[in-house]
Amino acid sequence: MESTHELFHSIHQLSRRLTKHLNEALEPYGLFNAQWSVLFVLREKGTLTQKELCEYLAVEAPPMTRTIQRLLKQGYIEQISCKDDKRKKFISLTALAKAHFPLWEKAVLEKNEELVRELPASIRGELKNILTDWLKQI
C-alpha cells in the first residue's frame, strides 16, 4: 500500500503556499487570510455567532477570538449580544466592510485566477469535485 505521507505533505505545502499568496493579495488592505475567511463567510451566510463561525471554518475558539477582535478594531464587524444569553454574540459585517468588500474580493479573485491560470478547465473542475467530495466525508 502506498504511503499517505507524501499526499498529505503535498496538501499541507499547497495550503501554506495558497495562504501565503492570499496574504500577499490582501496585505495592501491590512487583512490576512484568517480575517478574509471570516469576512467572506459573513458576506455569504449573513449574521452568525462566534461558535457558528468556528464550526464552519474549523477554527478553535482562541484564534477566532483574536481574529474577531482585530476585525472589530478595524471596524469591519460588529457584535450584538443575545437578549436571552449575554454570553452569545451575533457577528455581522458593518457598512464599512460591505463598502470595501468588492475591492477585497477583486484582489482575491485576481490572485486566484493567477494561481490556476496554467491548469486546464477540465482539471479545475475535477479538482473542485474531488475536494468537495472529500470535505463532505471528513
Automatic annotation (TrEMBL):
Keywords assigned by UniProt, alphabetized: DNA-binding, Transcription, Transcription regulation
Presence of the UniProt keyword Transcription in the record: yes
Pfam families assigned to the protein according to its UniProt record, in alphabetical order: MarR_2
Molecular function terms, GO-annotated: DNA binding; DNA-binding transcription factor activity
Classification via InterPro entries: HTH_MarR-typ (IPR000835), WH-like_DNA-bd_sf (IPR036388), WH_DNA-bd_sf (IPR036390)
HTH marR-type domain boundaries: 4-138
Top-level lineage group: Bacteria
SMART domains according to UniProt: HTH_MARR
PROSITE patterns per the UniProt record, alphabetical: HTH_MARR_2
PANTHER family recorded: TRANSCRIPTIONAL REGULATOR, MARR, TRANSCRIPTIONAL REPRESSOR OF EMRAB OPERON
Entry protein name: MarR family transcriptional regulator
Species per Swiss-Prot/TrEMBL record: Bacillus salacetis
